[in-house]
Amino acid sequence: MHEEGLADEGDANGRTAVTPKALLVLTQSVASAFAFGVGDPKVRGGAPLNSLQRGGDEVPGDRCKRRFRGVRSLPFTSFRRHEGRFGRIPADVRRGRHGNSAGRPLRGKVTLMAADAARRHATYDDVLRAPEHVVAEVLNGDLHTSPRPAGPHAEAASVLGMDLGGPFHRGRGGPGGWIILDEPELHLDRDILVPDLAGWLRSRLPAVPPTPFLELAPDWTCEVVSPGSERIDRERKLPIYARERVAHVWLVNPLERMVEVYRLDGDGYRLVVTRGGTDRVRLEPFGAIEIELEALWPTPPSEAK
Fold first, then answer.
1. Which domains does the chain have, with CATH numbers?
2. Who wins on pLDDT, 68 or 274?
């Protein structure tokens, strides 16, 4: 094969190996959301990733490697069948100029970037289209739906909201100075979160806006965790809260009868205290009042009246 050619002369079965230059021709013609790249360097006529050139400028090997993570290969002929979806294939390729000597179209494999570059991020429209009986959130570009809270979850969030609302939201029996909301929808950059409770200092949020969501990060959030949500709360939500500089996060587990208090420390959170059972506690940032934890937990059936 000549160095300037776009394909070799094919194998015994009439298939043609696609070279980097042929792939680059395809790259310029497909939709911007997709990227074609060099296939397996072992394919006859191919070139190592670190020697891929475009317009005389060498593309660094590391950059090429990043482009080929999470890819899948599709037969070239499949792109002709879906030409309208992926963009128009150049006429000379369609006529077989870059095919074999018989003028047949290329049958080699091209590589489609379908993991990162083409992955569709969930948006607010996806949240609006979610069924009404679920809680929909967008975390790191992924749509997460969860059922409405079960009884113990709802009871813990409701009682805690009542305990904090009087003294801090309304200033009755406490210092006031806060806005405390149940299940507010937070739009933080591209993420959409619905904590069980959230609080803002009135110095930052003097009044609740007349919008269906808030874009100002709270000063405190509370997530009531359950077996189905705990991993998401810890691994997905906590890093987002830290990025948005939410000063305090509480994780309340009514089944384990435990409260964990986290304080922002640098780029992450530091566990300040863990309390549970029947303790009466003062927890930051609401240390001005004492909270009776036993009131948050579900009442055992044997004790129910």
1. 20-112 (no CATH), 124-296 (3.90.1570.10)
2. 274
